Structure to design on (404 residues):
């Protein structure tokens, strides 16, 4: 029986060394979770046996369990690197269509703009609108529009924040002076093809607290435009009764193609200060190519384009399980769902018990290399001790055989 006990001890120690070696080999693997061998003593079952007289048959590896403690976060500066700071797994879809889960966030882009893992699995997420508001909890592959530019958008609204000089002289007559540039500014609008449309705004004081506004489109003479009137209250704010008409814009390629745009001048003020333009804005833009992406702590992916626009392109999904120990490792840093793990609970970063994401950061392996080296030495001693048991038993058997 001693041979069997020692042999089981050798097998268990060897299995433990395998686990320790696996941990040490993956100490630099992103998102890797360490494992440990858990032993169980073995007894023979006998009907009616008295527990105090049973002799054990050795040891067996009861389980190899994974330790899902948080790994250290390492800053990489790569926008597509992302780490989960807290609980949760990334959901991925492999090439064969199977679903897996991982903590490794070293993502990449393929030629079609799909966000993929190092082994080529597609990263799953939730659809959002352009402002980052999630539209559903139905996970789908995350994809960025890298193949074609985002289309241009025609200007529909313009706004200006301007300070008019209350001490400016009143114009001698109502006709516009030439050139009309003393109190003026300009901004750029866009047509449906993304072509630039210069728009000028020129102001002429016609009476105390009263100004005429002339406009220019595509370099036209502002003096030829029909002015509209602005009135200011005693505190210098714009009179809400002032009527501001829409501006008719024309495409530079075809002046016959016109379209209206609203003009918001509600932030105009008249004070005793020099003429100053604080802000000009409009909602149109030209076509733009993707120039960069950023993953927010909430998992929302923000894409930046060459036209200066930023748009959201989805939200990284996170899932969790009631029993993470029940997940089955499948290689390449992936785990798969089992009956013991329970079904996945879906969510988003920072919501409920889910951890937040850290962009430009990777989660390192949670292997404690020093502890593993110590475990390796103690396991080696256990292996040697079991081998010594076999040697001692062999000596005992040899003594018995040699009795005369």
């Amino acid at each position: 029986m001693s041979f069997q006990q020692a042999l089981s001890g050798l097998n268990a120690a060897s299995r433990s060394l395998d686990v320790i070696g696996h941990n040490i080999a993956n100490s630099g693997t992103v998102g890797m979770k360490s494992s440990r061998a858990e032993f169980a003593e073995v007894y023979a079952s006998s009907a009616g046996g008295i527990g105090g007289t049973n002799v054990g048959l050795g040891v067996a590896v009861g389980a190899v369990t994974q330790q899902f403690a948080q790994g250290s976060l390492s800053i990489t500066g790569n926008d597509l690197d992302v780490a989960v700071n807290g609980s949760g797994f990334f959901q991925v879809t492999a090439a064969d269509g199977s679903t897996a889960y991982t903590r490794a966030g070293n993502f990449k882009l393929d030629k079609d703009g799909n966000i993929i893992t190092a082994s080529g699995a597609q990263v799953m997420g939730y659809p959002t609108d352009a402002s980052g508001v999630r539209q559903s909890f139905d996970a789908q592959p995350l994809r960025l529009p890298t193949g074609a530019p985002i289309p241009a958008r025609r200007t529909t609204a313009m706004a200006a924040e301007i300070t008019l000089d209350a001490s400016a002289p009143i114009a001698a007559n109502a006709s516009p002076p030439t050139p009309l540039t003393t109190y003026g500014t300009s901004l750029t609008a866009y047509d449906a093809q993304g072509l630039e449309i210069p728009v000028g705004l020129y102001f002429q004081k016609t009476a105390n607290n009263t100004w005429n506004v002339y406009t220019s489109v595509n370099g036209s003479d502002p003096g030829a435009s029909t002015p509209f009137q602005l009135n200011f209250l005693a505190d210098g704010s714009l009179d809400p009764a002032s009527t501001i008409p829409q501006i008719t814009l024309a495409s530079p390629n075809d002046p016959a193609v016109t379209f209206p745009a609203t003009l918001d001048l509600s932030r105009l003020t008249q004070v005793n200060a020099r003429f100053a333009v604080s802000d000009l804005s409009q909602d149109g833009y030209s076509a733009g190519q993707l120039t960069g992406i950023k993953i927010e702590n909430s998992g929302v992916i923000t894409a930046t384009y060459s036209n200066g626009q930023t748009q959201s392109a989805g939200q990284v999904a996170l899932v969790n399980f009631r029993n993470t120990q029940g997940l089955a490792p499948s290689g390449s840093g992936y785990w798969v769902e089992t009956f013991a793990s329970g079904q996945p609970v879906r969510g988003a970063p920072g919501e409920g018990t889910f951890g937040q994401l850290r962009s430009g950061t990777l989660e390192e392996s949670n292997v404690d290399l020093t502890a593993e080296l110590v475990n390796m030495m103690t396991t080696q001693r256990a292996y040697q001790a079991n081998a010594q048991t076999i040697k001692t038993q062999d000596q005992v058997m040899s003594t018995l055989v040699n009795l005369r």
In short: The chain has three domains: 2-69+366-401, 76-149+314-363, 157-282.
